[in-house]
Prior knowledge:
The protein is α+β, with helices and mostly antiparallel strands and 248 residues long. The chain folds into 2 domains: 5-44, no CATH class; 72-246, Sortase, Chain: A. Helix content is 31%, strand content 29%. It has helices spanning 24-28, 31-71, 73-89, 131-138, 167-173, and strands at 5-7, 12-14, 21-23, 109-113, 118-126, 142-145, 155-160, 188-193, 196-209, 223-231, 238-246. The strands form 2 sheets. An 8-stranded mixed beta barrel has the order 4-5-6-7-10-11-9-8. α2 (31-71) crosses α3 and α2 (31-71) runs parallel beside α5.
Amino acid sequence: MGTQKISLKSGVVYGEPGRGEVQIGKRLKWLPILARILSLGGLVMMAVAVVGIVGIYIPLGMAEVRYAWMQSDLGRLVHQTQRSFAANSQNKAVALAVQPTWDVPDVNYSINIPKIGAVSKVIPNVDAGNPTLYLAALSKGVAEAAGLSHPGEMGTTFLFAHSVGSRVDYARFNAVFYLLDKVENGDEIDIMYQQKLYKYEVVNKEILAAADTRYLVPQNQTEKLVLQTCYPPGTSWKRLVVTAKRVY
């Protein structure tokens, strides 16, 4: 067997015959640099993680703050003033029997839930089983499930603002309905559809399994409005479903 000799002065390890020598000192000098690179990389990854978490959940936090403000006495007064101003400033070229008291994003299809301050454009006839299509729709507003009814028609109008993709999608695509769990029976929901205002009243709220699609089945016995979102907010664990009947 060959022999191995270490030179303490030069930091050289002499290996077996024919294999030359290894400069330990030259290799060790790279260790502090490598350690700094790894440390910096770890800090960058931690920063990215923190920014990601904030970006994902900040819409929920903002929604909670907005809701708390709306429930305060001053918030109620300001909200009522804004509603009166919106009612007076609506485009009079749109002939409506009852003028909306909210700033309508799109007179062809929009939703307003006064209790939680949720106002959004609605994208009609979206395939709820095609992620590519419904994610594209949800980036613009609330989606209406295709194959069912529309406001003013017998059957189910199904509106959803949820995603089954990554956690980043939760913040991007279901912020409109983040506070839907605060809606109670008797609360008002307004729908503007094809330049006509429809008013609904909440009659039921329930939590269903993520795979439960009972409300996506067509029916022609009653006219109902169904709103669906992920639950708890920021997850895709279950589905929160709110059902409303038309009162106007």
